[in-house]
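Board notes (copied after class):
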Amino acid sequence: MGQKTNSTIFSLSLKNAEWKSKYAEKNLEESSILLDKNIKIRAYLNRVFKLHGLIIHDCKIEYNHTTANFFITFFEKRTETTKLYEQNKKTYKETPGISSNFTNSKELINHLINNVLSIDLNLFLKTKAIVFKVQNLNQKFEQEINGSKTKLFKCKNILKQFRRFLKNPLFKELIKALFIAVTERNSAKLIAESISHYFTKQKKRHGFVVFLLKRTLETIIDSKFSIVKGVKIIISGRFNGAQRSNKKILEVNTVPLQSFDSIISYYEDTAYTSNGTFGIKVWVCEKKKFF
């Protein structure tokens, strides 16, 4: 039954459970309306960030009758954003009247907040004050690693083992996403969407990426900078364009799905490809001593 239960909902009854959406309702009827708005806002934010080469790692929403606060951490897919920067730079030169010029992640986020998200959410929430606080996990991870010589040395030693994989941009991005995932809380969404992005871009070599996932996770989970205890991944679909679908289960260390004491992050995603869809489920068990 553990595989059929959403681990996030399973642990929400605990005292230390943290709700990602907080709002103040006037009555019970308004509560259902605010819940529906919350679902639509999250779907909209995920869609906008995804179209601009960004993966939302965590999103916390707090709103009342006057203001709406959004706290978002995201992962930048460099293979996607680099093309976007070059395309925007070319468009900006060809069309002098355009005002949305961005050449890096900071300028891109400012453009999204000021010219897209704030305007649309203001209309949807009916003229509420919109406040955004965002954090780039790529920059945060690089600062933490470069700030400690011990972490930098260990990180370089681990990367040497995957030297032949780093030549492929998709593999390099996937490995970096896994490195960031084991250092952050609630990283199941980041892992699931990173795998989904690979399956969408790569038509074949699906079995090879499963091997890479297992080898990378086995190496980095046991490192000292990891706050993850175990990971379980289930991928189902037509691997390498086969006629029949198959299921691959990848489990690194233990992931107790029926224990209230364990801290489990869960997410499921779907990759749409020319060979059909791939269903991806990810469970991440975090270490207790960090909380």
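Comment from the instructor: The CA atoms of residues 196 and 271 lie 5 Å apart. The first helix runs from residue 7 to 10.
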